[in-house]
Specification:
This protein is of the alpha+beta class. The chain is 52% helix and 9% strand. Strand 3 and strand 4 form a beta hairpin. Helix 7 packs across helix 8, helix 9 runs antiparallel to helix 10 and helix 11 crosses helix 14. The radius of gyration is 30 Å and the shape is flat.
Length: 435
Amino acid sequence: MALSRLIGSRLRDQRQGRGLLQSDVAARAGMSASYLNLIEHNRRRVSAQGLTRLAEVLGCTPDDLSGPDETGLTQDLRDGAIGTSAEIDRIDEFVLRFPGWAQAMAQLAGRVALAERTVAALNDRLDHDPYLSHTLHDLLSALSAVRSTAAILVETPDIEADWQARFYRNLHDDSERMARGAEALTAYLDGFEGGEAAQVGTPHEELDRWLAAQGWHLAGLEEGALDAVLADAETLQSTAARSMARAVVLRAAADVAALPMAQMQAAIGEFGPDPLRIAARLGADTLAVFRRIATLPGSVLGLVICDASGGLVFRKPAAGFAIPRFGASCPLWPLFTALRRPMTAVEQQVAVTGRAGPSRYLLRAYAQPVRPTHFGAPDMCDAAMLIQPVTTVPSDARQPFAVGTTCRICVQVDCEARREPSVLMGQKSGPVLGF
């Protein structure tokens, strides 16, 4: 029998429906009227024995009072209300009195969140995708050439035959180029969800696909097969992607040598995925522990790493927590708080606006200076942030801090850190920082 948080509301409805006084029910159930009042207002839990006594007094069954466990539904509604003026403290009552509407609203919030994530990905690609930009440029160039040639032919009736033939030939060639560009663009957009288009992009995207295909874990390094992993990295198409992959492999090999898997798994079993405690126990570099935790086999933790400029140089996503491939990410991430305060641990539980995944995440961030290679070298700093989905939320947990992915697709109203208006909110997205 589930002890739902809505027991008190059901108990109050049952008592009032039978015309019974609170004091009478409390006396017959062997408890004080003040305690029963707290139960009815969902401010105190009731034991299974107490629930049975109350059900006997009211002439119903304990299941009539406990009902189904709506914890997940209530939490979905709470998450959907983040950043709004909804009466969050009355969600339990709403779920009890209008369970159908509550379920419908939770499902609608989920669909909206999924749509927002899709818009995020499309907006990101339309704004920054180099292949798309190049294809559109070629298409517009061909269109301009066709218009210019057609205008000359229309406005100049006495063109010599040879020049007229040349213009017709140019018109034909440019029309063919425009048709090929339109076909390529159509094929690219049609394949956006995983076809050929997904294989075109920046070197960072190519590297991310290669790492994701291996589950973000370079298993060969655990067996000492560094040369084989480097050879596999050489199969990437672009020179830039191969160069970045080689750097990632060599750094991962150093992490494996400093933090063997058996030691890491034992430390995680003792401390959980707490990089500071693990680093202290193993005497290891803190950011190396961050990288190792997130890339162990089967790890569900996401990881982002940025350099001193704040640009993201490593992106391992977590379920429902989107990480922009291009442009600036949300400045409210603890990652950037840590970057401003090197050697300071920053931890925060957050909810992502418009999320389509776990409702909460525990973010742990840390920044440390990069060891200079010579005197006179500039001061540099790297920061890392672990993204851990929170699967169990206590009933009395505080509302998480709301963060976004990037301003362009964030639905947070009146955010003081906003850089640009949101395409999802129109004029409702509030003022823009610095303007």
